[in-house]
Design a protein that fits this description.
alpha+beta
Length: 100
């Protein structure tokens, strides 16, 4: 199977007393750090209007190799919020053939 681009989705919860700091860190530090890594093409955050963890981040990644670069290994995870994140979920999706 070739190493092709895919969508990487992360969903998490965090206690309300840490939300403001977590959201600021995510937007101001985590996204720029990740997008500076080779193979991390785009990033966008969402808040749930239904079931499951409250926050979601959707990334476009050039291939599985992007998870193995020294740059990514330095910034992966939730930094100062690692022990505070709850209900972590991950899904990785590849395009179906013929999709535009």
């Amino acid at each position: 199977m070739p190493d092709e681009a895919f969508i990487h989705i992360v969903r998490v919860d965090i206690d309300p007393e840490h939300e403001a700091a977590f959201n600021a860190w995510y937007e101001q530090r985590h996204f720029p750090d990740l997008l500076a890594c080779p193979g991390w093409l785009s990033a966008k955050r969402f808040v749930s209007i239904g079931e499951g963890p409250k926050y979601a981040a959707i990334y476009e990644v050039a291939g599985r190799w992007a998870f193995e670069t020294p740059e990514f290994l330095k910034v992966k995870g939730f930094g100062p919020f690692e022990s505070l994140v709850k209900n972590f979920m991950r899904i990785q999706l590849k395009p179906m053939s013929g999709s535009a």
